[in-house]
């Protein structure tokens, strides 16, 4: 919507929120999970080439490639914006071409490996923007036509549900065919870039958006606690994404037998997976809460630093006698609430 858009200003504002967390957390993961985790910490001073290689493909932590892709999307955003503005009135055609390219591209990436050196790095395609180009274009077009899309989605819950079931059935059926008819390994058959998965992904995105719209329009004001929980979780989601693999690494690090994590050796499945998931989530939230209150929080979590409670306020609370009348407690609480509100307003 902003006609005065400038690419350099956009890059300066957005890229720093991704590139610094990417560099910092890639270094943390490389040192701890790659070097120390494999018993090679003594080789760290001589591992610069390996570090650069991991950094080049988002390999330091298995989720870090996503930030690498985000950086590419930010760099390409001015070009995408130019395309959307130049093709006003023809966005359906743009989506059609992009979808056709997506089908051809994912089929090529999934079912063909080029010869020579290119073939040795072909599997890194997931760390490039190419397999996601359709969803980038789809998001840009949807942003321009968000009001029309919102109006179209209203009252079409059954249409979306049926579409979701049909596209999911297509994805599962083609997976089973690849495994039991084509004799593919389940790992290969479940490749995330299978062309037959694309319709399901598109419909799933539409369903999630429609559900969020319905909740926001009809239920958000009626469920303030849930709304607060969503806001709280959203504010910490990026930090959890960055830290959760490290937390998971330490949870699964203790072993009871060769290549068998202690937790999974002593807790039967599927309960073991549930326990590991909950521990990882809780541990990640604790790590994020700590990091959000440290200097450099913006570069560690992508979010501004949260203030610590003033020491004198904590001391004052501890020194309040138990015999103070309830009315004075009420006045003190009201005063603290007013200060917090004023502080929040000034930061906003």
From TrEMBL:
Residue span of region Disordered: 324-348
InterPro entries xrefs: Acyl_transf_3_dom (IPR002656)
GO CC annotation terms, alphabetical: plasma membrane
Primary subcellular site in the record, as a coarse category: membrane
One BP term from GO: enterobacterial common antigen biosynthetic process
Residues passing through the membrane, by range: 20-42, 62-84, 91-112, 124-145, 157-177, 197-216, 237-254, 274-291
Segments forming domain Acyltransferase: 7-287
Signal sequence interval, chain numbering: none
Listed GO MF terms: O-acetyltransferase activity
Localization of this protein: Cell membrane
Keyword RNA-binding attached: no
Membrane disposition: Multi-pass membrane protein
Domain of life of the native organism: Bacteria
Keywords of this entry: Cell membrane, Membrane, Transmembrane, Transmembrane helix
Family under the similarity heading: Belongs to the acyltransferase 3 family.
Protein name: Acyltransferase 3 domain-containing protein
Source organism of this protein record: Gordonia effusa NBRC 100432
């Amino acid at each position: 919507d902003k006609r005065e858009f400038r690419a350099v200003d956009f890059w300066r504002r957005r890229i720093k929120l991704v590139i610094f967390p990417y560099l910092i957390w890639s270094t943390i993961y490389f040192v701890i999970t790659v070097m120390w985790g494999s018993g090679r910490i003594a080789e760290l001073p001589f591992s610069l080439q390996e570090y650069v290689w991991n950094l080049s493909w988002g390999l330091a932590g298995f989720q870090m490639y996503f930030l690498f892709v985000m950086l590419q999307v930010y760099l390409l955003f001015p070009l995408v914006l130019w395309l959307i503005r130049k093709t006003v009135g023809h966005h359906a055609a743009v989506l059609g071409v992009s979808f056709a390219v997506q089908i051809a591209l994912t089929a090529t990436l999934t079912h063909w490996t080029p010869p020579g050196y290119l073939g040795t790095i072909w599997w890194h395609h997931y760390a490039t923007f190419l397999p996601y180009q359709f969803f980038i274009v789809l998001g840009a077009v949807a942003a321009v036509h968000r009001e029309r899309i919102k109006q179209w989605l209203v009252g079409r819950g059954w249409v979306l549900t049926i579409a979701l079931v049909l596209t999911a059935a297509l994805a599962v059926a083609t997976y089973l065919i690849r495994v039991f008819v084509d004799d593919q390994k389940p790992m290969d058959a479940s490749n995330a870039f299978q062309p037959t998965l694309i319709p399901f992904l598109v419909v799933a995105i539409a369903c999630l958006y429609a559900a969020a719209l319905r909740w926001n329009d009809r239920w958000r004001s009626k469920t303030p606690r849930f709304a607060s929980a969503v806001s709280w979780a959203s504010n910490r989601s990026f930090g959890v994404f960055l830290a959760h693999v490290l937390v998971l690494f330490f949870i699964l690090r203790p072993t009871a037998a060769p290549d068998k994590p202690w937790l999974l050796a002593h807790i039967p499945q599927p309960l073991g997976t549930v326990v590991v998931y909950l521990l990882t989530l809780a541990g990640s939230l604790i790590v994020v809460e700590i990091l959000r209150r440290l200097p450099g929080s913006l570069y560690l979590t992508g979010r501004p630093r949260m203030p610590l409670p003033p020491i004198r306020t904590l001391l004052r609370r501890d020194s309040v006698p138990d015999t103070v009348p309830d009315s004075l407690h009420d006045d003190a609480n009201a005063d603290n609430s007013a200060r917090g509100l004023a502080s929040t307003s000034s930061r906003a």
